[in-house]
């Protein structure tokens, strides 16, 4: 297992920018890495990516120097285990609504004595053929893996204080679109009430000393978020491609 450079930067209050991708092609991850992004988040929720494909995507991330993370579709310890054993270095969990669900996520990600993650001689531990023995790797992995529940509805906001008190959580990522839907705004998060709600959540998470993240469609948006203390910014791969294509096509006008 490699050092989690993204987690190290976040611990030093340095921003990280990356992409959420629903592609099953490892080449996409490789391109994102060589492009200089900090992290590549495999979307295991809104995509056809299977656990069998995750391993090759992680290998591509490692080759190109980008930190592999994943959004996993459900808070299932066995499913989370498959992503982590493949070498994913952080889990973002959608739809978390209360402290019990956050605690279950932490326990699924962490090895004993912190959690209940099962151990096997898999690629995340270099098949036990590398420099670390089992005990050394368990301690290292528990320290290195990022745990990032997503805030996506009003119930999660109502329970935020209890969720932030769960030991082992590194931070929270706000999902603006689903949050807006839960507030009754089905056309998107551009409404003033949604913006005020998100701003309030950002402040609460920052005051708790935890990492806060959310989406940014452009570099200017990411810069504005970072200036507000949002250190974890992600765009979609499709969004980055669209922005670049739109800029490039100006040459035809």
UniProtKB/TrEMBL annotation:
Domain of life: Bacteria
One Gene Ontology MF term: lyase activity
UniProt keywords, alphabetically: Lyase, Metal-binding
Domain HpcH/HpaI aldolase/citrate lyase: 19-237
Pfam annotation, one family: HpcH_HpaI
Record has Metal-binding as a keyword: yes
Keyword Lyase set for record: yes
Family in the record: Belongs to the HpcH/HpaI aldolase family.
Name under which the protein is recorded: HpcH/HpaI aldolase/citrate lyase family protein
Natural source organism: Spirosoma soli
